[in-house]
Amino acid sequence: MSRTYSDKFAPDRLLFTPEEACARRGWCLNGRWQFAPMPIGADYVKGSGVPPVLPWPDAEDFSDTPIYIPSPWNGNVWGNGRVDRTDGAMRYAPDSVYYPSYPAAWDHAKQGWLRRTVTLPAGEAGRRLFLHFESVMGHADVYVNGQKAGEHFDSFLPFDVEVTDLLHEGENELTVGVQQMHLFDKQSDTYRLMRTPYAHGSNTQDLAGIWQDVYLVSLPAVYIKDVYIRPQADEGRLECDVTLVNTTDTAQTVTLDGTVCPFCCTPDAAVPDGRLGDAVLALPRAIVELTAGETTTVTVAARDVTLPYWTPDTPRLHALCLTAHTAECEDRQVTRFGWRQWRLAGKELLLNGEPIRLIADICHPFGPFMFSRPFIQSWYRLIKSVGGNAVRLHAQPHPQVFLDVADEMGIAVLDETAIFGSCLTLNFEDDIAWERYAAHLDDLVRRDRNRASVCGWSFGNELFAIFLYDDAAKRDQDRFYEKLIALGKRVKVLDTTRDFITCDGDEDLRGTLPVWSKHYGHGARTLPAVDKPMVVGENGGTYYARPAQMATFNGERAYESYAGRNEALGIDLYNNLRAFQNDLIYFSPSELMWFGLEQLPYGYDDFSRLPTLEDGIRFPYVSEGEAGLYIERIPPYVGTLNPGWDPTLPERRELAMVTAMRDATARDDALNAKWAPRTTTLPPAPTYDRRATVSFLGSGESALYQRLGDAGVTFVRGGEALAVDAATCRDDAIERIREVTANGGTVLLHVDSEAAAEKVASWLGDTLTLTDRRATQLARGCDHPFVFSIPVELLYFAENEQEKAILTHGLDGGLLARGTPLLKAAATDWSLFNDQPENRKCGAVQMYEMLEKPSGAAWVLLPYGAGRIVLSSLNVNADSVAHRALWNRLMRDIGWAVGAPRTLEETHAIKQHDLLLNGPIDT
Questions:
Q1: In 3D, which of 653, 621, 626 has the Cα closest to residue 637?
Q2: CA atoms within a 13 Å half-sphere pointing along the CA-CB vector of 6
Q3: Region 612-620: what's the mean pLDDT?
Q4: What does pTM read for this prediction?
C-alpha cells in the first residue's frame, strides 16, 4: 500500500542569494496554475514543419483540475503511462502515473495554455521586470494581460522575457501557450528517419509544459546581465567578463566592484544551505561609461591569486560578488565558481596541472523522480562509493540542481546537449535545425561555463547513427559533418577555459576534435592507436545484451535471474575497466545507477498481487512559491535509489556490477581471480544399453502426438514405454500405464486441462491441479539424470519468434509431494527485458521475480510400480525448431528410442539493428 512522504519532494535554491536580494527581487511563481488543453485543427499537416494554430482559450477551456508548476501537463507519459494490467504485453511494466490528479485526457494533449495571476507589489516603478523560465518543454508563447511578451523554442534551457511595459501594480494575468516539440517535426524528402529539426533529447521528447521553475524578476535600470569567470590557476590570474546593461535614456557612469568569498555549504544537505564566508580577494575597481540604452562587456582581472583549488576530492567553492553602482541605483550579482583549471596535454587531462582519470556514470532521465536534489545526491554518493569522480549528464541539458550538487560534492561533469543521435530522428537536412542546434549549444555553454564541476563539453551523442541508419549519401555525409564540425568549434569561442570537447561516441569527428570518444558494448576491446586523449563514454551490454551474450562471462547464471545477469555484467565491467583505465582520461559504464542496482518497490510490499495506483510514495506537500520540481507520487519499480522517501527500503540495493566497479578502481591484482569469466560445465547425457520403444494412448490428432512425432518419436504397438495424452485417452488407460510401469517402463503422462488433471488424479489416488503459470524459460528442478545435462539454451524460449511460452500451466497438488520436480518454470522471464525500452525492462523483470507465483512444476517424476511416470504440462500447442529440439532431448534423456527431429523450415523476420535496444552497432 502507498506511503506518504511529508517533506518537499525536490527542494531547490532560490534564484537570488540574500546578498543579491537587496538589489534584485524575485518572486517564484511555482504552484497551482490553470491548464487549458487545446485541440489541433484539421488543417494541420503532420511532418510539414509548420505547427498548428494554437487558438486563444476561452474561460471554459480551462480545466477545474489545477496543474502544479513546474511539471509537464502530460508527465504521466514520462515512462510507461497508465499501465493496463490486463494487457499481457504491459502486465508487469511499472506504471508512470506521477500525477494521479491530472486527467487522463491531458496525456494526449499536444498543445495548451497555462495561466495564473501574478501580483506585482508597489515600489517597482523605474525598474526592469522580467519573467524568468528555467525551462519550458516545447515552443512557448508568453502573454501578459492579453499582450504577447515573447516566445522561445527549446525544451531544456533558461530564457527571459521582458515584461516591464506589460505589468502594472496589483494583479496581472500571465498566460503561457505551449506546443509540444513534435508539432514542429519536418519530414525529410530524402531520408525516411529524419524528421526532428531540433535538439530533442532522450526520454522527455514527448513531454510538454512548464517543467522547471518560473520567476518574476525585478532588476534595477542599470544591471549586470552576465558574468563569465575565467580562472587561470597556472598563472595565478582570475579574469571576469561582466556584461552591463543601461536601460535608461541617459548616459550612466557605472562603478564595478568585486570580491571573492568562500562559498560554504553542507554538500549532502537535503535543503540547500549555501552561505558566503568573509571576503578573501578583491578585484580591481572598474569605471564604465554607458551611453543611453547601451549594453557592453568589461573585463576585470586579479593577479597573484592563490585560492584553494576545487577538485573532486576537495570541492572547495567560491563566489564572485559583484556590485554595479550608479548615481541612482545599485545592482548585485553573486556567481559561484571554483578555482580550477581543466587542460589537455598530450594524451592526458590535467586538473590544476595534475593528471586526472575520470571514472563516471550516466543515466537517461527516466522520470521526474530523478530530478530531486536528494535523489541526485544519492546518485553521486553511489559514484563516489565505487571510486568514481564524474558524471555525464546524458542526452540533454539537466536542471541546474545537478550541477549545484556536483559542485558541492566533488563530481566532475561532462556537460551534454540534447542533440541526441541515438533516437535516429534528427533532421540534418533542414537548415533551421542547425540554427536551433547552435542556439541550444550556445545557451548550454553560457549557462554552465562558470561551474567548477564542468570538466568538458559534449555537443552531441552518437550522431554517426543518423548517417548509418539512413544510409546517407557520401556527399550529404560530408556536408553534415562540416556543419557538425562548425558546431563543435563554437564551444571554444564561448568557453576558453576548457579543452575537453567531444561529440560522445562519435570518435573525433574525422580528426577535428581534441578528444577521441567511443561507445563499446560487451566484451573486452583493444583501443586503437590514437595520439590524443581517449574516452570510453559508455561500456557494457547493460541495456541490450541477451542471456546468451552474457553467458560468455558466467555461464548459465546469466539466464537464471536478473542478479545472475548482473553478475555477468560485473565480470565484463571489471575486466574492461582494468584493461582500459591506464589509457583513458574518462571511462563510464553504461548506466551503473540504472543497471547496477535493484529497482525498488517504492510503497509496495504485497507481492501476492501486482501493483496498483494505490501503491507507491505520495507527496502531499504543494510547493507554492518555492523552488523545485513538483510530484504527487512515485510508483513502484521506476527507480533504484531511495533518498529517504520509503523508510522501509534502504538507500540502494547493490548488484554485482557495483561491486565489480568498486573492485576495478581499487587496482588490486589479487581481485582479478574473483572476476575471471567462468562457464557452466554440465555432466554428460545419460547413456542406455538399449532404448525403449514407445506406444501412444490418445488421439492421433492431438497436439502431443504431433509434437512427439515431430521430435523424432516413432510409435509402435506394445512398446516398452508409453506416452499418454490424458485429455484424449480412454478412461481405462490406467491399465496400460500399470502394465508398462510393472515392467520397469517409463510413462509420459501429459496434462493440459482441468478435466485431464482430474482424470489423472483419480488414476493415481491423489490431487492434481493446473496453475495459471506462463513461462518462457524452464529451469532444472534437481540433478536427476533425466535432466541434469540439458543445457539452458534448450530450455530458453524468450526469443522464440513462433511461440515464447514453453509453459502455460504449471502442476500442483498432492501428487507432486510424492514426486521429484525435474523441470519447472524459471524464476525470471527475459521476454520482459529483450526488445523493451530501458524505462520498462528492468522494473518489469524484477517485479516478475518478486511476485508470488503459483506452482510452475512442468515435468515431475513419480515412482510407480516398478517403473516411473513423468507428469508433464509443457506447452504442446506450439511448434518450432526449438520446441522440437527440446522434446527430442527430453525423450532421449529418459531412455526412449528416438530419431532426429523432423525438418522444419522457419521464416524469421529480418529486424534492423536498433541502437537503443540492440547495443552499439559493432557488437
A1: 653
A2: 0
A3: 96
A4: 0.95
